[in-house]
Design brief:
Elements (H helix, E strand, L loop, with lengths): L1 E5 L11 H10 L3 E8 L5 E3 L26 H7 L5 E6 L13 H12 L8 E5 L2 H10 L5 E4 L7 H9 L4 E3 L7 H9 L3 E4 L5 H9 L4 E4 L2 H7 L3
Length: 229
């Protein structure tokens, strides 16, 4: 099972910072997960929330106005060149202050990977809770692996079927919804199952035992040790 550092090694460093991503590399994580939002001048800011601690909204700011510790996607990709997995989560939900119904961020992410020659390298995985966002990525770049992040709903099985029908590569449920049955269903449909966000060693071992493909965790060092790595 792959170990993916959630927003970098976020238990040891501030999340979604270059320090957190460097920390994940140093710990030996198989990959990192990161969040992307757009700024007013269409930079791809690596930031989970749509609003800064001081109340300013990311989409209303130019890149130069962001705090120094908020990197852009290209900087993070550079910092993670040695990793086999980079999970780029596009933050785009109707309740967000920067909701992007025209899928500007999806298009910008694909364009950046194209410019860097990284659309076909197999290591970038694009995910989102908003199905239309990853659908747009697939329409633009069918060769890019895409994953649908699944929220807290009672029955995930129809959503797994839907992800497969839309041609995505993986589903990303919360780890509390993982089960042997769900993993078997996804694998039978050709989908990977990458769960978020689990930090408990015993639970991580159990997830590996039932066939989960990757675990997203705040403590990649703990997860690696739990798996005997």
């Amino acid at each position: 099972m792959f170990v993916i550092a959630h927003r970098g090694a976020s238990a040891a460093h501030p999340e979604n910072t270059l320090a957190a991503f460097a920390g994940a590399v140093a710990m030996g994580a198989d990959g990192v997960e990161l969040d992307v939002r757009r700024t007013a001048d269409l930079a791809l800011a690596v930031r989970h929330g749509d609003t800064l601690a001081d109340g300013r909204v990311v989409v209303e700011l130019d890149r130069r106005d962001l705090p120094a510790d908020v990197p852009v996607l290209a900087e993070v990709l550079d910092a993670c060149r040695s990793l086999p997995i980079v999970n780029i989560e596009i933050k785009n939900w109707p309740d967000d202050k920067d909701f992007d119904p025209e899928e500007t961020v999806a298009e910008a992410v694909v364009a950046l990977l194209e410019a860097r020659g990284e659309r076909n390298d197999g290591r970038n995985l694009i995910s989102s809770f908003h199905l239309l966002t990853v659908d747009r990525v697939r329409a633009l770049a069918p060769e890019l692996p895409t994953a649908w992040l699944l929220g807290f709903v009672d029955d995930l099985h129809p959503l797994v079927d839907r992800a497969a029908a839309h041609g995505h590569s993986a589903v990303h449920p919360h780890h509390v919804f993982a089960s042997e049955e769900l993993v078997r269903q996804a694998h039978d449909l050709g989908l990977a199952v990458n769960v978020w966000t689990c930090d408990d060693p015993d639970r991580i071992r159990w997830l590996a035992d039932i066939g989960v493909d990757a675990v997203v965790t705040n403590v990649p060092d703990v997860a690696l040790a739990a798996l005997g790595r």
